[in-house]
Structures are given as C-alpha cells and as structure tokens.
Amino acid sequence: MPYYRVVGEVPRKRHVQFRRPDGGLYAEELMGEEGFSSDSSLLYHRHLPTAIIKAEAVTPVMETRLEPNLPLSPRHFRTQELISTGDLVSGRQLLGGNSDVRLSYATSDRPSELYRNSMGDECVYVQRGRVRFESTYGVIEAGEGDYVVIPTGTIHRWVPDGPVNVLAIEAGGHIRPPKRYLSQHGQLLEHAPYSERDLRGPAEPYVVEGEEVPVLVRTRGGLSRLVYRHHPFDVVGWDGYLYPFAFNINDFEPIVKRTHAPPPVHQTFEGPGFVVCSFCPRPLDYHPEAVPIPYNHHNVDSDEFMFYVGGDYSARAGSGIDVGSISLHPAGFTHGPQPGAVEAVIDAVSRGVTTTSEMAVMVDTFRPLDLGQGALSCEDPGYAWTWAR
C-alpha cells in the first residue's frame, strides 16, 4: 500500500511491552513482504496467532485443471450461464490461468469459511451485489464495482448480503499500483487516475470470540485446513503499509486523448506477469477527424482477458458480447472492432454523441493463458468467426 495507517490500539513504540487489561501481553504478529524488506504491518493479538491444535490436508472441491488454448482462437465466455456451486472461495470456477495468475468466477449468497491464500495477493472484483469482507485487519463493506485487494497471508472471509457475483484474480506474487503512478517514496502522483482518498481500508478492529476455529489455507503444496486454538479475529490494533483495501471502478479517472489511446491509459494495478485495467465511461476522442473506437491491434506479448461489466459495447455489436461476457484475445491473433462498427460510431459522433458508457475489467497477461473448465463450460463456439461474417 502507498500510505501508512493506524487502526485500533497500538503502543507508542514498536516491539515494546503492550499489555492487556488483565496484565498479560498482547501477542505481536508482523506481516511482511519480500523477507521483511518491503511493506509490512504489525498486528496485536489477544491470543497467540501461532496456536493451532489440528491440521489436515484438503482435496479441492473445484476443478483446477488447465488446458492450452489450442487450436489458437479468440474466445467468448458467458459467465451468465455459470451457476452457483459453493461460496465465494470454494465455489470459484476456474476460467484461465498460468504460472503467474489464476482467473476465476464465483456467484454465491452464502458466507465463506475463513481462508488464507499464502501463494499470493488476490484482487476480487464485485460485479454484482453487496458483500462484507471480514479479516484480521477489520471489515470492508464492498459493493458493485469494487476491487478488493487482499495481501498474501491475510485470514479473511466473505459474507454476502444476497447473491453476489465476483471475478477473482489470484496472483503468484503481489498486486500494487503501477510504478509510474508513484513517487519514489510511494505517494500516488498527480497524473495517476486515482488517489489515496479513493482507497478504503478497514476503519476499526473486528474482534470475534471463538475457540477451535478452522481456517482453509492455500499454499504451493496444496490446500490444508488448520484449526486455531482461538479465533484469529482477535486483533485489537495494527499499523503499517500492508492491509486489504477496496477501490471502486467508478473512482477511476479516465485519461483521454484527441485520438484513440492505447490500453495502458486504463491500467489500475500491476502484478507479477500481468496488469489489471479499468475501462470506464469517458468522453470520446475529440479530434475532428478521430476514429473514436479501438483500432485493430495485436499486443504481441500479451493475452487479453476482458470482462464486460456494464454499459454499451458498440465496438462489439454483432459479436454476441454483452454484460457478463468475457473475451479472450490471445497473442498470435489480431483483434479489433466488429465489421461496420467504425462507420457506425463515426456516424453517431456526427449526430452529437460525445461519450461512451462502456465498463470493463481487463487482465493482460505476459504468459499465455490456459483455459479452465469453468470457461470451457460456458463458451460461445461461434465467436471466433464473427469478424468474417
């Protein structure tokens, strides 16, 4: 995270005695990245965060197998056809992935169990509904359009308020704001499309009583379930730069040029081997002779995974793309507007249309994306041929 926060009770100095009302010591837990050479936070627990009384291996509920995108083809997946199969953790249906990132879709109205991803950070986009994110750091209320970024190793759970649909981006490392948006000391700069004021972290501690509490833990070796002597939500205070936060896509400030701008202007976060971009309502390109629509393009180093979450997709008219669709345009394939879309948009501009309402979340990966069974089960088999009609 780019800035420091204090939540709850902490002593004036770090690593000094901090006592409970009964005279006992609070237990420190330092959560730190990159061997404690990068961002960290210091949490103060009422009980030992190390006290576990049971451990067992867990067989994954969902299919985790990936298949190569062969024959090489652009793809269209209809997430509207995926049905709920569990909670927002156990019910994730794998859409695609590689050694850097896994992309899954989930829809559920039930609370998840406590969960810790110790393989990397997560960025969960809430497409529809409202959900309460509870963690050792506190609570974040999230709703439609929110990205919730969760640091590696954070124990948390999801409590939906009715049906919720999410896209889960699971990294093999850490997810951060792009470096070009940050000063050398980590402050978001004036040219960045969002600021610290747009980021929402937990505001107060969230303390829960309980004993013999199970936590599902994902590591590089697989899934385990650890049973903790006391509930891990026993933190009375913490401070530091590392914590979960939410950012709403509607707070992203689009960067507009006179002629069409390439996707990096939409970048929101970066992770190891991938970037996350937000396409938001914005003014159309305003040069008198602009072609205010994406040109045919081929990002030779990336696979483009685009989740269409709202608005009107005039550039894709006739392709079958709609809200809830996901397109995958792999490296090796040139893609762009559907036939007739350029002329249609130029005509609309001549009649006074000045804005676009499209909203989408895009993940560009720098290694090929393999396909998960969730995606293959809801694929539109005719999509690849729509440019040739």
UniProtKB/TrEMBL annotation:
UniProt KW keywords: Dioxygenase, Iron, Metal-binding, Oxidoreductase
Cofactor: Fe cation
Ranges annotated as spanning the membrane: none
Residues covered by the Homogentisate 1,2-dioxygenase N-terminal domain: 87-248
InterPro entries: HgmA_C, HgmA_N, Homogentis_dOase, RmlC-like_jellyroll, RmlC_Cupin_sf
Keyword Nucleotide-binding: no
Family statement drawn from the similarity comment of this UniProt entry: Belongs to the homogentisate dioxygenase family.
Name of the protein in question: Homogentisate 1,2-dioxygenase
Organism listed in the record: Nonomuraea insulae
